[in-house]
Design brief:
heterodimer; A: 15 helices; cell membrane (chain A); Multiple sugar transport system permease protein (chain A); MetI-like (chain A); transmembrane (chain A); transport (chain A)
Chain lengths: ~325, ~300
């Protein structure tokens, strides 16, 4: 109560006494649950129950072609996944993809936002260029980029041929390049999200700070280094961790552009999950792989909480 | 600070420089002449422009390339990049073929129906739950809140297998409901609504309460009308998310008549064979509604996406 009174020191109505308040408050439980119920039912049916189902079925030989959970498997599904070379390969691809997308997606978005904030004009144009791809369907993006990458006749290979490489390796058809090609597409597609988060963060920095720094003779670069970067610390934490989680969930682009290939050279964990569950009908094993991916994501989320708590403590 | 108000806000360093002679820093930094400084500021701005424009053009190339290809004939597009670039006999043939073909209309219909219904349910149910969490005191409130915080940590994509199994068990596969229902419980929507409601003044509601209005009346007649900006932002952000969702409709819809735009586009590459121009045109038609949405609601989309932290 104190906080809200402080915020509005000129509250027009006198606060009801504690007794009156409790009278008004009485009977809030029933309407509260009625207000929550519609959302709550969906929440339980499509979030809580799937989590429980996933956990249970990961210990059973659950199959799509048989009813019920099937026979008990103990840790069999987990043991199978943890000893399956393809699982570790997919996990590595997922983590590799996360690394090679997160770094440019954070650094480039930061640079673009600083520059766009600096020039302050034609903002609509930079939003159009950098942000619009982010709100387009992954399937449309995949079509455009698969065409750019198409072997020998595509835009990319034609460019490399023109630059003197007579027979460039097809990007999506070469095991070492496929995931990098998908990563470039992803950087192009999703940078707009980080871009607008950084732009929003930049707007919160008081301009007086820059003016004071200029008075003291700080150069542009010194201003960026000692004002902008430190004051965008929280934004950067947010951007980096949202980006890591988004990249760990990579599925669409790989499914659409390479289907995990050539061979299994670009397979990622969610691709392995859906293959196991929907192609091989093995829901139990697919659930176990999902749980393992979820654990990785929860670890990242936990790290985010720790970092944010530390930042809050420092700010306080 | 008075001079600040009359200065050009884009050039704060000029204003600051005027004060400079009057300020004595404790540890004097390396002094540079004013002319030097103004020059370095201008150089920095010019470099910023150049770098940004180079990257912006680079970022536009893939889209422009797809548009150019879609306006070229299939025969020319099959010849390679150079013929596409040099052929300026633009044709709308690919768009004609697709729009006359019919599939795309089914996809539009499926995407429109599923997106609109999901948005309506998410906004109504999400704002109701948020109202209870923001305004009402009841036993179990903390537990509900905690459950939602936990829910936000589990990305829906990870739940695709159990959600599929559930929809399969109740016989909802290959219906629009299979795409709609699992996307309704958006915890982020509840949090965004709650945050907005927390910031609304409570005086109207308190006096309405004293006049005997029910919470439902207060929610309908006072809170919702004040919440138009956040309703608009959440509607657009949810719409974009549902329209673009691939993984859910991909696995729960197999009937081509029910496919949403992303699933339809996912089938195009295989089924269109060498009709490269048609393929690019279908991609552009699939993206077009969102581009139009962006043009209309530019600010709301950017703010909504940045404010809710929603990421694929």
């Amino acid at each position: 109560m104190t906080a809200s009174t402080l915020e509005r020191p000129t509250a027009p109505v006198a606060r009801p006494s504690a007794r009156e308040e409790s009278d008004v408050r009485r009977g809030e439980a029933r309407p509260a649950w009625l207000f929550i119920a519609p959302f709550g039912i969906f929440y339980v049916l499509f979030l809580i129950w799937p989590i429980i189902y996933m956990l249970i079925s990961s210990f059973f030989n659950t199959s799509l072609v048989a009813k019920g959970f099937g026979s008990f498997a103990g840790f069999g599904n987990y043991a199978e996944m943890l000893t399956l070379p393809l699982f570790w390969e997919s996990m590595w691809h997922t983590i590799f993809f996360t690394i090679i997308t997160t770094i440019p997606l954070v650094v480039l978005a930061f640079v673009f936002a600083i520059l766009a904030n600096r020039v302050r004009r034609a903002q609509w144009f930079f939003r159009l260029a950098f942000f619009v791809p982010f709100i387009l369907p992954s399937a449309a993006i995949a079509i455009v980029w698969t065409f750019i990458y198409s072997p020998s006749t595509g835009l990319w290979d034609s460019l490399r041929t023109a630059l003197g490489n007579p027979a460039p390796n097809p990007v999506l058809g070469t095991p070492d390049l496929a995931l990098i090609g998908v990563a470039v597409t992803t950087i192009w597609w999703t940078i707009g999200f980080n871009f607008v988060l950084y732009l929003a963060g930049l707007q919160d920095i008081p301009r007086e700070l820059y003016e004071a720094a200029a008075v003291d003779g700080a150069s542009q670069w010194q201003q960026i280094k000692s004002i902008t970067i430190p004051l965008l610390g929280r934004t950067t934490t947010l951007v980096v961790l949202l980006q890591i989680i988004a990249s760990l969930k990579i599925f669409d682009q790989v499914y659409l552009m390479t289907a995990g290939g050539p061979g299994t050279s670009s397979q990622v964990v969610l691709g392995l999950v859906t293959d196991t569950a929907f192609t091989n009908y093995r829901v139990g094993a697919g659930s176990a792989a999902s749980v393992l991916l979820l654990i990785v994501i929860l670890i990242v989320t936990g790290i985010r909480q720790l970092i944010e708590r530390a930042q809050n403590r420092r700010a306080a | 600070m008075a001079s600040q108000t009359v200065s050009d806000p884009a050039r704060p360093e000029q204003t600051a420089r005027k004060h400079r002679s009057g300020v004595s820093a404790a540890a004097p930094p390396p002094r540079r002449s004013e002319a030097q400084e103004r020059k370095s500021g201008q150089v920095f701005t010019v470099v910023s422009w150049l770098v940004l424009i180079v990257f912006a053009v680079l970022w536009l190339i893939p889209s422009l390339w797809a548009i150019k290809t879609s306006l070229t004939s299939n025969a020319t597009a099959a010849l390679g990049a150079l013929p596409i670039l040099t052929d300026w006999k633009l044709t709308l043939g690919s768009y004609g073929t697709l729009l006359a073909g019919g599939d795309i209309w089914n996809w539009y219909l499926a995407s429109a129906i599923t997106s609109v219904i999901t948005v309506a349910l998410t906004v109504i149910f999400g704002s109701m739950a948020a109202y209870a969490l923001s305004r009402l005191r009841f036993r179990g409130r903390r537990a509900v809140f905690l459950a939602m915080v936990l829910g936000i940590m589990v990305p829906p994509q990870v739940l695709i297998v159990p959600v599929f199994a559930e929809l399969n068990a109740v016989g909802l596969l290959n219906t629009y409901w299979a795409v709609i229902l699992p996307q309704v419980p958006s915890v982020i929507a509840v949090f965004v609504f709650k945050q907005f409601f927390d910031g609304l003044p409570k005086e109207f509601e308190e006096s309405a309460r004293i006049d005997g209005a029910s919470f439902w009346t207060i929610y309908r007649r006072i809170v919702l009308p004040l919440s138009k900006p956040v309703i608009a932002a959440m509607s657009i952000v949810t719409f974009v998310g549902v329209w673009n969702n691939l993984i859910l409709p991909l696995f729960v819809l197999s009937n081509p008549k029910l496919m949403t735009i992303p699933v339809g586009l996912a089938t195009v590459q295989g089924s269109f064979g060498q009709r490269l121009s048609d393929i690019q045109a279908s991609s552009i038609l699939g993206a077009l509604p969102l581009v139009i949405l962006f043009v209309i609601f530019q600010r709301r989309i950017v703010e909504g996406v940045a404010g809710s932290g929603l990421k694929g």
